[in-house]
Amino acid sequence: MIGDTLRSERERQNLTIQDIAKGTSIRALYIEAIENGDYDQLPGTVYAKGFIRNYANFLKIDADAVVRQFMEENHPEEAAAAEEAKQQLAEAEEANREEVKQKLATGSEYREHVSSSSNRSNNLLIALIVLLVAGGAYYLFAMDDSSAPKQPAKAVTQTAKAPAGTKAETAKPEAGKEVQPAKVDGVELVAKFTDKCWTQVVADGKTVYEGTMESGKTETWKGKEKVVITAGNAGAVEMKVNGKDMGKAGNAGQVVEKTFTADKAGQPADAATADKKDSK
Question: Secondary structure of the chain: what % helix, strand, coil (to 5)?
Fold first, then answer.
């Protein structure tokens, strides 16, 4: 069981559960649940995978292999589907490499490149000829016109003056009127981290970040329709959405999921707290 593997490695490194909790910002009760295989105590599968990956990274063992073992033990159908997709991707890449090799072997790629280069050279040559002809015509015209008498040109200087009684004015915002932040297309989330925090960000249904943010980091994520942020230590995350200050995501040590949509920019569409075991 994956919990036994993590516990054994922790004990081998002479680390306590509190050491892991401090180093990963994962609550001690979740670490105990992982080691005991009691995954019902965790907020959900996504959180479980994130916590296990973070735990394995802290112990400096193969996090991908540990997460894969967790999925095979607890969600075999999803693990099999992921493995099949990986195999299909590998086969597609291999087929693409074979196609490139075939093109190179038949010389079609080389002929296309030579033909393209030849066309560019012809275009440059035509442009050069046109330029030379135009230059020659201008030179002959200037020579024919050189016998005509010429009058010295008079230098005329004019100064543009503003109409009397007018002054340039700078537009100023009306007194007492709040300056609105610049409009942003879609959803723009800026997150500042004041402590370590396991974080997952999903923009328009695609996971764009999953890992542990360090204290002092500031990151920006954008989505056309929706941005969802999940924080394992909500009190360490200060957020701005489309320029509007949203404050902290939650309390220290709390697992929180926030959803922001384009039609309600600056307001969380769903601020559900995923820390179901807060009362323990």
Answer: 50, 20, 35
| Angle CA 240–218–42, to nearest 5 | 80
Question: Per DSSP, what are the bridge partners of residue 198?
Answer: 212
Q: Which two tokens stand for residue 192?
A: 């500042």
- What are the sequence ranges of the domains in the chain? 2-74, 187-270
pTM metric for this prediction = 0.49
End-to-end CA distance of the chain: 25
Comparing CA positions, the residue from 261, 268, 258, 266 lying closest to residue 225 is 261
Fold of 2-74: 434 Repressor (Amino-terminal Domain) (1.10.260)
Q: Decide: 199 and 210 in contact? Cβ < 8 Å.
A: yes
What are the angstrom distances between the C-alpha of 68 and each of 73, 75, 76, 80, 132? 9, 10, 10, 10, 69
Which pLDDT tens digit goes with each residue over 14-55?
A: 999 999 999 999 999 999 999 999 999 898 889 999 999 999
